[in-house]
Specification:
- The protein is α+β, with helices and mostly antiparallel strands.
- It has a single domain (12-167), classed as Peptide Deformylase (Alpha-Beta Complex), CATH 3.90.45.10.
- The protein is built from three helices and seven strands.
- It has helices spanning 26-41, 128-141, 152-167, and strands spanning 46-48, 58-61, 73-83, 87-94, 97-107, 109-115, 121-127.
- Strands 1-2-3-6-7 form a five-stranded antiparallel β-sheet.
- The mean pLDDT is 97.
- Bound molecules: nickel (II) ion (NI).
- Nickel (II) ion binds at residues 94-96, 136, 140.
Length: 168
C-alpha cells in the first residue's frame, strides 16, 4: 500500500469523467488499498480514484466514528438507481478543495448498486451521512465537485482560497 498525492482544484483531471471498471482484480484491489490508505492519511471519509489521478469509477469510504473500529467500504462502478424527492442540506468538504466547507442540498435517500471489493454485485439503501457521501463521491466520477453546486462567486472564492493555501 502507498499514500498517493491528492489532486486539488483547479487540476484539470478532476473535471474528467471516469471510465467504468471491466473487472475487479488484484490490480484494482491494490488501487483501492492505496486509495484507502491515502484517505485515512489525509484524513478524510471518502475518496474517488480520480482524486489521485486515476479516472476509474472507484470510490472508497469509511464513515466510522473516531472511537469506533475502522469500517472501510469500496464501491466499483456505483450507480444510483433511485433517489428520494425530499432533499436535505449538509455542510460538505472535499480533500480536493482543502479547508473549504459549504452547504449542498441533495436527495435525502438513494438506492444504489455497485461491485464491492470482491467484485460481488451489491444493492443498498443509503440515508444520512452515507447518502451525502456517496452522492458527493459519485459526482467526482462525472468530473463534478461539490463547489460546482454552489454559486459561481462562491466557487471562485473556494478555488482562490485553495490556490493561496497551495502556494503558502
Ligand atoms: Ni470530494
Amino acid at each position: 500500500m502507498a499514500i498517493r498525492e491528492i489532486l486539488v482544484v483547479p487540476h484539470p483531471v478532476l473535471k474528467q469523467v471516469s471510465t467504468p471498471v471491466d473487472v475487479v482484480d488484484d490490480a484494482l484491489r491494490a488501487l483501492m488499498d492505496d486509495m484507502l490508505e491515502t484517505m485515512y492519511d489525509a484524513p478524510g471519509i471518502g475518496l474517488a480514484a480520480v482524486q489521485i489521478g486515476v479516472p476509474k469509477r472507484v470510490i472508497v469510504m469509511d464513515l466510522s466514528g473516531k472511537d469506533e473500529p475502522r469500517a472501510p467500504r469500496y464501491f466499483v462502478n456505483p450507480e444510483i438507481v433511485w433517489a428520494s424527492d425530499d432533499t436535505a442540506p449538509y455542510e460538505e468538504g472535499c480533500l480536493s478543495v482543502p479547508e473549504y466547507y459549504d452547504e449542498v442540498e441533495r436527495p435525502a435517500r438513494v438506492k444504489l448498486k455497485y461491485l464491492n471489493y470482491q467484485g460481488e454485485a451489491v444493492e443498498e439503501d443509503a440515508d444520512g451521512m452515507f447518502a451525502v457521501c456517496i452522492q458527493h463521491e459519485m459526482d467526482h466520477l462525472e468530473g463534478v465537485l461539490f463547489i460546482d453546486h454552489l454559486s459561481r462567486l462562491k466557487r471562485e472564492q473556494a478555488i482562490k482560497k485553495v490556490k493561496k493555501l497551495v502556494r503558502a
